[in-house]
Amino acid sequence: MEQLLTEIDHVAIAVHDLDAAISWYERAFGATVEHRETVESDGVAEALLRVADSYIQLLMPTREDSPVAKYLERKGEGLHHVGYRVDDCAKALESVKAAGGRVIDEAPRPGSRGTMVAFVHPKTSFGTLIELVQEPG
Q: What is the extent of the structural domain holding 67?
């Protein structure tokens, strides 16, 4: 079978206070924000801190009914999901379905910074929420 995952795109961390988390990463590691965006459709504000060719994605809910707000309520701050970069999000998503995987997104949808994304349910992937990420262009 063809390898569909090309690299780790990001590790996402759910936080209550985005500015405080950014400040801590700056003080502790010298990390700086490369991209910051509010994704209204997901109800989150995010900050991306570059680490080599990948990111640490800090996520803060912007509304109480967002998946990240519900996660924080249930589990508190911490690791939320892992994003894997793929060349073709639709193809990778179909491969997950063909392998009997449960998906959250039936088709790729727009993500932050112009990407196309789709989520794989953690019950399928051994307890880890997975985001498939296709870079723009």
A: 5-134
